Amino acid sequence: MFQYDALVKLWETYSLEPSPRLKSSLVQIYVELFRFLKTVVRIFTRENNSNRHKLLVAAKLGWRPFDARFQEFRDHLLIHRDIIEKEILLVTVDKTLKLGATVTGSLLLNGEDKRLLREAVARMEECCKASGDRHKDEAFSRALDWLSATDFDLEFEIASQKRTPNTARWLFETGRFHEWVSTQSTRPPRRPGQFDDNVLWVHGNPGCCKTILAYSSIEELKTRGAVSYFFFRLDEKGKNGAFDAYRALLSQNLSPQKNNANLLDKFLFIMHEPTGGRQVSSRKRLLELLEICLSLRKSTAPYIVLDGIDECQQNKSDIRIYLDNEFPKLKRKFSQDTNLTKLVNHLVKGADGMFLWAFLMIAYLNGASSLTPSQRVGIILNITFPERLEDMYQRIMTRIRSRYEDDRKFTRFIITWLLYSRVALTTNAMKDSVAIWSVEAFELLNQAYQKDEARGFRFIHQSVKEFILASSGNNPLYTTPIDAHYTIFRVCLEYIMTRFPDRSLSGRVGEDACPNEVIDKLPLSQYAARNWMSHLCNVKMSKSKNKSHTECLSTEHWSHLLALLLGFLSENAILKT
């Protein structure tokens, strides 16, 4: 039995306070007792608190004997008993020393006695410290076992082997990166689900080495503070869920703080709280623990690097939050008696964990101005099974087919640039290209984009490009590669001939033009001057009989191409510019 009475008498006699080590031990004893009682109750009762049948109880006890079931509990109590016994001895010896120092004449210790007593006290303190360290180590091991994080560092090692030295430095030299690392904003996001100033989002198409960039970012940020990371992998169990990431991040942040008794106590408390039979804690509890771990690392700024977030599957709750935030903006698109919650449930099922699908559906419902409220409701209620992105793209494609011919031509022109341009055009450069092609379309685009966005136009996801190219046969947006390169070539050359001045680009004879000033005045000039010949080379001029009409330039376009080239070569002033 624990010698609590002896401890209480010592505290009362000498007006002492229990040590932090003993307080922690007492807390753990109560945790173990409650855990023991909960286990016993589960043997005799069901989840609804009704009694189990006697035969079921006997079978359950027979399957796993009492000794085996509660061996761990008994082992833990033995550890705490050892702590209490050593605490009693330490208090007794410590008080003896203090009394010996104050009593004069009645008890005089010689030098050898004092040395022996000091050695005894030192041994006791060492034993208590060792016992406390053993308790911390055990708590740390149990916390790691409970987290059961997958081999998250394997992807890091693979990326390190693939990276070429001195690559990916461009990211760390950008102004946006320097602005981000110097940000210490404590403001919450402007609305739930939205990135705040503390988040740097680097995105790109598949195959553009984002994983290598993530690895390089981890190495760079290690020089600035504590870094934890996770690499999502869609096709690998244990690496494709939000809980997998939480456990890996917690494991990385717990290890450097394994000697923090307060943190370990919080882990043990959450580990043993009622979970309704689940093996792991709730998302809320895991996030609370992660926030606590990060807040304790105050000496250095904590960073978290996540790779492949789009490959995370367990995000239906986040999609619901996103839809709940967006649907109030669509109220006018539905009748007043519409059950918006029911519609959100259908869309969550249709999204099946894909944020892009949910985003496109909201844009589709908001942008399709010709749809009636009942048609919008019908579209959503018809979604009874999880959909693919291709289903969403097909829905958008069907909508485009119903538009006017001019609208389809305008959309096809934009997509031609997205598919076949050498580099992504800025917003202003795209406006310039549209102005050469159609004045009416330019006015429409100018209304849609009022800001100058340096990032410009690009597909929202690589799968959009794959869908357009794969469905070329019945796709109103598809243009053959030959016609596409011809269209871009024609726009570039006409732009040079009509927009370039007949004198020096600087406006001053003998003085070189400033590139930034030229791009401000003529946004498409750089692309047109550098790439018109490249697009011309991709236009197949052969008209042999064994080629179909989709594999060579039409006679009309061929004539126009020659006329453009002759006109361009005859403009001496432009050639000199």
TrEMBL record:
Pfam families assigned to the protein according to its UniProt record, in alphabetical order: NPHP3_N
Keyword Lipid biosynthesis attached: no
InterPro entries attached to this UniProt entry: NPHP3-like_N, P-loop_NTPase
Organism of derivation: Mytilinidion resinicola
The protein, known as: Nephrocystin 3-like N-terminal domain-containing protein
Coiled-coil segments on the chain, per record: none
Entry's transmembrane regions: none
Record domain Nephrocystin 3-like N-terminal: where: 166-322
Record keywords, A-Z: Repeat
